[in-house]
Amino acid sequence: MIQLLNERDIEFLLYEFLNTEELLKRTKYAEHSKEVFDASIQTAKKIAEKYFANHNAKGDQQEPTFDGKTVQMIPEVKVAWDAFAEAGFLAAHYDFEDGGMQLPDIILRVAMAYITAANVASSGYSFLTIGAGNLIDSFGTDAQKDRYLSRMKTGEFAGTMALTEPAQGSALADITTKAVPQNDGTYRIFGQKIYISGGDQSLTNNIVHMVLARIEGAPLGTKGISLFICPKVLVNEDGSLGERNDVALAGLLHKMGYRNTTSTVLSFGEAEGAEAYLLGEPHKGLSYMFQMMNEARIGVGMGASVLGYQGYLYSLDYAKGRPQGRLPSQRDPKTKQVNIIEHADVKRMLLAQKVYSEGSLALCLYASSLHEDTRTAADDDERKRAAQVLDLLTPIIKSYPSKYGLKANELAIQVLGGSGYIREYPVEQYYRDNRLNPIHEGTEGIQAQDLLGRKVVQAQGAAYREWALLVVADIENANPAIAELAKPLGEALDKLNKVTQGLAMKLLPETELALANASEYLDMFGRVVMAWIWFRKANIAVNACTPQNLHEDEANFYLGKLQAARFFFDWELPQIHTQAALLLSMSAVTSEMRAEWF
Amino acid sequence: MIQLLNERDIEFLLYEFLNTEELLKRTKYAEHSKEVFDASIQTAKKIAEKYFANHNAKGDQQEPTFDGKTVQMIPEVKVAWDAFAEAGFLAAHYDFEDGGMQLPDIILRVAMAYITAANVASSGYSFLTIGAGNLIDSFGTDAQKDRYLSRMKTGEFAGTMALTEPAQGSALADITTKAVPQNDGTYRIFGQKIYISGGDQSLTNNIVHMVLARIEGAPLGTKGISLFICPKVLVNEDGSLGERNDVALAGLLHKMGYRNTTSTVLSFGEAEGAEAYLLGEPHKGLSYMFQMMNEARIGVGMGASVLGYQGYLYSLDYAKGRPQGRLPSQRDPKTKQVNIIEHADVKRMLLAQKVYSEGSLALCLYASSLHEDTRTAADDDERKRAAQVLDLLTPIIKSYPSKYGLKANELAIQVLGGSGYIREYPVEQYYRDNRLNPIHEGTEGIQAQDLLGRKVVQAQGAAYREWALLVVADIENANPAIAELAKPLGEALDKLNKVTQGLAMKLLPETELALANASEYLDMFGRVVMAWIWFRKANIAVNACTPQNLHEDEANFYLGKLQAARFFFDWELPQIHTQAALLLSMSAVTSEMRAEWF
Asked: B512 to chain A, minimum CA–CA distance in Å?
């Protein structure tokens, strides 16, 4: 069976890299214990192994089909969905009194990581349902919660987010889906949405679509968008399912990977209009939806990290057991071949995968811990700081794992060579699955604009300074044994400060030019963040290695972290200086290129 | 219909970037004219459009199957094969007296590029047949040529290269397939080969396998390998087809892309042994096979370039016609949306694709011109120099386009966004097809070892110096208008010289360490070569732009080349300085990593 994640590393992330145990001191989690946290994760792992891993390849080979009436899916997906729901994970983060397990977000995220590791496509339905439910929880009325959310928590209903339209793509400001007010306070929706994941399926009797639409007469642009609950099947007063709503599946899209998550085109209001209910206030829909989008962005980073991680583990295992060739200093054909893990270039490809995937997973769990702090940290200041840093880093949490998780999967294929390219091995599917992540929930280009054009400059750069202080503090408090890493990290932060200030000053006078190379800024910032992550890990590793009586496996674990950190600082971080030079030069090569010159 | 390559650019490459017209002065091509060259290419283009483009997607969706007896393929592949063969392209580069069209290699390669652009998978059978035929032409007896080659030229027989074995992978030194001499001078072959492209198919009645095997009692290692002709069906004295040889298709492999080229496991000698005929002398098989491998490596570079090129053209066309969003300085939702090609980040992604794909295609056609010079250049010195430079650059010609053609396809998907990820659009297939290229015909790691461990150091670096002199001469003779590019190119060459010398001196005393980071050296060298390619293009462009009365389309074409060169020098070249620092530091981070630390 394919190994799902690395338990020792998860433990390291939860209890050494992050202070998850400290959460037990917060009132909300006082009734829990580390044992409860770990048992919850183990439950998810078992469900992942038993109900999700079994059909990861099958779901890719036999993707959902649509005969014009219903969506056909392999039956394993519903079995998995039911098992996940029955174990309570769709409501795990809700309070006891709301039918939940009152678990911290990070425990839920680690649980979900195991599910994703087993089968990213089948896990999609759960992510969407949890996210849509959270929206109703945040902005819905009690009646809406009672009618929809309560049944999304049990898995009776699923949820989606319906934003994108065929003509508008990423440009939400221009969406045209129309909501017509009715006398009874409901709305009728007319329009088409595309790339709606889970927009139809054969798992649940009902699907609760969270739809962005424009109320008739609303202003143009983002300030005229409202958010609606629009169920696939209407729900009667008594809770029974009523008529089919006027929401039609216009077709399924056929993806390169992630095939077992349906991707749909939905038509709202082909007849009398799809009945829908306003969530929160009119015209505030986009700001509400950002809650789900931000959650989804972290979720995308998480999924990308985990796919990268799975490819890493598989190719590592392969490299340890595949003899081929000899070292350059030993060419005698009479000598035994070495396992390919002995070749320096294979070690490079494994180390790169290790830093990308373990580093990305650490970043995403750190994001989850920040999210927790925004809600349950002891004092207001701490909550505010956590919110600022999370808001700042969200574009990086979404895009770094997406870019480098994919890169990791590319390397996993390369380690396997010819075997990596054929469907008889799992790594090519990870690669196809992961190619979605730099695209959905805001492309890399959009994340870059968000980071440079908004996040680093808002509130006079307060969030950026908050984050930079964390890095500086970590450098100052680090074990002197990693001074070799502290120095380049400090220099990298200085360089990032300089570039950030330089670009920020140009944003108003020369907006186009300052933002032209934003994608390079995003990548540079991501590298510095990842260097910080690995610096923190190296510091823990050095401290842990100080007693000389460590068990050999433990010593190896920490030495691996240390060597991975060194790899990152030798191979990945130095490129930021080249990037900084490009950014500071305000190169206009891209912006001055003309369509007719191509 | 999808545009195949760019005719204006092909003309530029043949007649401005390279001096293809000069070939007409060589005796061999004296009877030809530019019109003949162009007409041959046009013929191939028409065949590509009519017979190959029609089933590129279909061949991906309906890959070949094997029912235990025969291989089933969609019928379009044979129609395409026949059309290509009937037009004479399988023999185009042979002399008139040998039944060919006596065309220069570069014309054949451009003709093939159109076929590849239309359908890389269906083109595979032709590439392999031409390469296998060339081997027989170089090393075979007249009888072997008569019996096999003559019928490969007409398309009656196809050819393969059968090197890799399941247990050995890339380590050819360790192959175990056995050849047992018979009293009649023939051999019987026993063993299994894997990843044999075109190893079985439904196109031809016979397949001529070029098989590496070890004659019983031969020395271990590379010096005990011989090359054999081993047909699928035995050929009688009178040329009629005889019995089925003892070569069995053990199974088809199922690839991520390139699906319509069968990838096979072949069993030789499950019964009495597969009858085979020694090609050339015993124990020299690997050196012979290097002819085909080198040809195949350039072919891989070409295929990767062309796939990159197709993705570029498609995403360019998409970007020109897809309105979405507004520029950062114009957020008013009442204004019209711009086509996405106006966004700087989309221009970046298109420019990157342009430099990768147009640059790679130029590099591969340059390789073809060098190959031509090794055979038909006027004087011996010129032939020798061409051979040296081609030999040196082959690892780069294979690997740069493979790495960056794939990267280009990744960007093509990104330009299309969600559309790029679904099979309703062609770019995801290009990406899947192209992922093979960094693997087959020697992985990137193997190319890196070949470049640093052999090519740059052999004959005391003579080939490297030959190539460096070409760069220096181009810098010296360049139009002063591109001094902005001449300076960084000169600095890049100096840096590469320094790194090369530094590593070469360490090769003997510290072999493992000197070769540990060879992949980074390969990438660095590739970037410098590509900078040189773009410098040469920029120089032509600047010279062509000097008269002020250029037609607007022409001016745009050259301005595009110039801007692309600037992009390469701003965005791609500067990274070599970071790479050089890593290489000169002799970082041991990868080589010192231990298996148990992962």
From this structure: 6
Contact B324 A435 (CB under 8 A): no
CA distance B1 to A344: 46
- Tell me which residue range forms the domain holding A241: 159-283
Residue B597 belongs to some domain of the structure? no
CB proximity list for A114: less than 8 A, separation 6 or greater: A4, A5, A41, A44, A45, A47, A48
Decide if A344 and B591 are in contact by the 8 Å CB cutoff. Answer: yes
B441 catalytic? Reply is: yes
Q: Are residues A118 and A132 in the same domain?
A: yes
Q: Which two tokens stand for residue B61?
A: 């969706």
Q: Give the DSSP letter string of A248-268.
A: EEEEEE-BSS-TTS-EEEEEE
Residues of B in contact with A418 (CB under 8 A): 164, 169, 194-195, 439-440
Question: Average pLDDT in the B1-13 region?
Answer: 96
pLDDT at residue B548 above 80? Answer: no
List, for residues B39-64, the tens digit of each pLDDT value.
999 999 999 999 999 999 999 999 99
Where do the H-state alpha helices sit in B140-284? 142-144, 150-153
Cβ–Cβ under 8 Å, residues A265 and A253: yes
Could you tell me the pLDDT band of residue B95, with boundaries at 50, 70 and 90?
very high
CA-closest candidate to residue A427, choices A56, A50, A8:
A56
- The burial class, CB within 10 Å (0-12 / 13-18 / 19+), for A462 is middle
How many whole angstroms separate alpha carbon B15 and alpha carbon B8?
A: 10
Report the b/e string of B545-565 with b at 16+ CB within 10 A: beeeeeeeeebbbbbbbbbbb
**Mean pLDDT: which of A303-317, B504-518, B543-557 is highest?**
A303-317
Reduced DSSP (H G I as helix, E B as strand, rest coil) percent helix, strand, coil of chain B, to 5:
60, 10, 25
Query: Å from B589 to nearest chain A CA?
Result: 6
Give percent above pLDDT 90 in chain B.
96
Q: Do B333 and A220 touch (CB under 8 A)?
A: yes
Q: What DSSP letter does each residue of B218-244 carry, written as one string?
A: PPSSGGG-EEEEEESEEE-TTS-EEEE
- Rounded CA gap, B412 and A30, in Å? 51
Cβ pair A519:B348 closer than 8 A: yes
What is the CATH classification number for the domain harbouring A312? 1.20.140.10
Give residue A14's pLDDT: 98
The reply to whether B478 and B400 lie within a common domain is no
Distance between terminal CA atoms of chain B? Answer: 49
Select from A171, A331, A346 the Cβ nearest to the Cβ of B337.
A171
Q: Is the ipTM of this complex over 0.90?
A: yes
pLDDT tens for each residue of B422-433: 999 999 999 999
Whether residues B294 and B264 fall in one domain: no
Chain B neighbors of A354, CB-CB under 8 A: 598
End-of-domain residue from the set A243, A266, A283: A283
* pLDDT at residue B329 greater than cutoff 90: no
When pLDDT is averaged across residues B7-30 and rounded to a whole number, the result is 97
A511 closest CB neighbour out of B328, B438, B597: B328
Predicted confidence (pLDDT) per residue in A58-90, tens digit? 999 999 999 999 999 999 999 999 999 999 999
Residue of A421, A441, A447 to mutate for B, most B C-beta atoms under 10 A? A421
Same domain, A174 and A36: no
CA distance B583 to chain A (A): 10
Residue A168 scores a pLDDT above 90: no
Does B476 share its domain with B410? no
The answer on A454 and A430 residing in a single domain is no
Tokens for B130, please give them.
């031409």
Hey, are the CB atoms on A169 and B428 less than 8 Å from each other? no
Q: Tell me the two tokens of residue A132.
A: 């849509």
Tokens of A337: 């071949």
Distance CA B416, CA A439 (A): 9
